[in-house]
Amino acid sequence: MTDFFQGIDAATYEGPDSTNPMAFRHYNPDEIVMGKRMEDHLRFACAWWHSFAWPGGDPFGGQTFERPWFEGSGFGDTMALAKLKADVAFEMFDLIGVPYFCWHDADIRPEGDSFAESKRNFEEIIDYIGTKMETSGKKLLWGTANLFSHRRFMSGAATNPDPDVFAWSAATVKNCIDATARLGGENYVLWGGREGYETLLNTDLARERQQAGRFLQMVVDYKHKIGFKGAILIEPKPQEPTKHQYDYDVATVYGFLKEFGLEGEVQVNIEQGHAILAGHSFEHELAMARALGIFGSIDMNRNDYQSGWDTDQFPNNVPEVALAYYEVLRAGGFTTGGTNFDAKLRRQSLDPEDLIAAHIGGMDVCAAGLKAAAAMLEDGSLEAAREARYAGWDGSDLLDSDLATIAARVEAGGIDPTPRSGKQEVLENLVNRFL
Prior knowledge:
Layout: E1 32-33, E2 36-37, H1 38-42, E3 44-47, H2 48-53, H3 79-96, E4 100-104, H4 105-108, H5 115-136, E5 139-144, H6 163-182, E6 187-190, E7 196-197, H7 205-226, E8 231-234, E9 244-245, H8 250-259, E10 266-271, H9 272-277, H10 282-292, E11 295-299, H11 318-330, E12 339-341, H12 352-379, H13 381-389, H14 403-411, H15 424-432
Parallel strand pairs: 3-4, 3-12, 4-5, 5-6, 6-8, 8-10, 10-11, 11-12
Antiparallel strand pairs: 1-2, 7-9
């Protein structure tokens, strides 16, 4: 055991009347919601990068966090520090009771002086993490490759104008998929942090899209080659740090998948903050993924709506979260996916207990949102109103007809539209009854 969380007890459920900031008020893992344990609905995961690798910097200032495994970069510059970081991570997983975790390769291993050295470091820490998983019972929700932090990726990874960077990226992703499969990971995520452009003056859009599409085809082919049973996920993001990214939102990703024949192979991991940056709501992106048949998993965080950028804060808005989980439940719930806290402390929240309290609060907000969403779905009033609004289409043959036939029917006087209220305010009031 390390002493990083010394004096902090494991979080327990104390109920809605509790005033203990280090206890759950709403998250009771064994509570049955719609016939399933709450833990099995939510499938919480902790993000390695924000919780253990991020040093507390922002665009205007550097490191504020002092962690025993930090040396210079904050990613852990030696294998001893990487293992210490893993020890602390698994201690936190136990303290807050999350069943899953997620990583980028660069978060868990030190960068070597060569690709071969980085790979050796990676394989060593994967062995170490695998041992800790066996003893703790924790599972890997998903792994991914960091193809955006190092300067070699300044112009992208798969979309880079330098084919050597494409090759380096392909080799990195191959190793990360291997490691994810080895640890029994349930998904593999591709997040193109710099797969876009900063100016059209030096960008060949057609070429870069072809590179990105072929890269993804290679990933899918390799998944099948090694027999990886997990889902391949793309995480949409519209911009930041690039001016525009090729995986702008769920609809854009679906069009990309259709173009390259991958719509049956790849799903989406949707982040709340990215949905907002794309000009959508979280529930919009979830509903779109469900409608298109590509819903996979979620990153649960929020943005500061005054800042206008991706601030990755822990969720604290139950009504917003309830509408998101309503769409998750409408999609049938998670299968291989789950709720990953892609969220980080504010750079002034320095203490180890802040990290625990942040996750406890976020888990409570999600639990309260899930229960509200389940109550709305079981009540059935929203779905009944939706069905009633489209009832006129039941038995209609219009979509099997043609313009001339439809026009003749209208001209014969058989159709006379009468506008009906959409009842938006009534439905909004209905939702508020459950919150």
